[in-house]
Design a protein that fits this description.
The protein is mostly helical. Helix 2 crosses helix 4. The longest helix is centred in the N-terminal third of the chain and has 45 residues.
């Protein structure tokens, strides 16, 4: 193998390494960019008046108005909807990927 063959091989290997590194970085950036719209939607939900009312109800009145031992399924519609709204928002905050089908 002469010097030109060695140089060609070195350039080819370097190009392969750079391509792999670039592909890995692009994959990471793509994965992170898909979560941004979901997080923005989640933060908008936390700021909505409906969610604020539901949270205030769950934190302030739910326990005094309903027996915790009865569980969520025994709650009247208004209380159950408030609990579900708050719970789903917190589940989304814990794992934002779950909000749009695991993307």
């Amino acid at each position: 193998m002469d010097q030109s063959d060695a140089a060609t091989l070195a350039v080819s290997v370097l190009a392969l390494v750079v391509s792999v590194i670039t592909a890995l970085r692009q994959t990471t950036m793509m994965r992170n960019s898909n979560q941004l719209p979901v997080l923005v939607e989640l933060f908008q939900e936390f700021r909505s008046a409906e969610w604020q009312r539901a949270e205030a109800y769950v934190l302030g009145r739910l326990r005094t108005e309903h027996d915790p031992q009865a569980g969520c399924s025994a709650l009247p519609d208004e209380a159950r909807i408030a609990v579900n709204n708050c719970g789903s928002a917190f589940r989304g905050a814990a794992d934002p990927r779950g909000m749009n089908g695991g993307a």
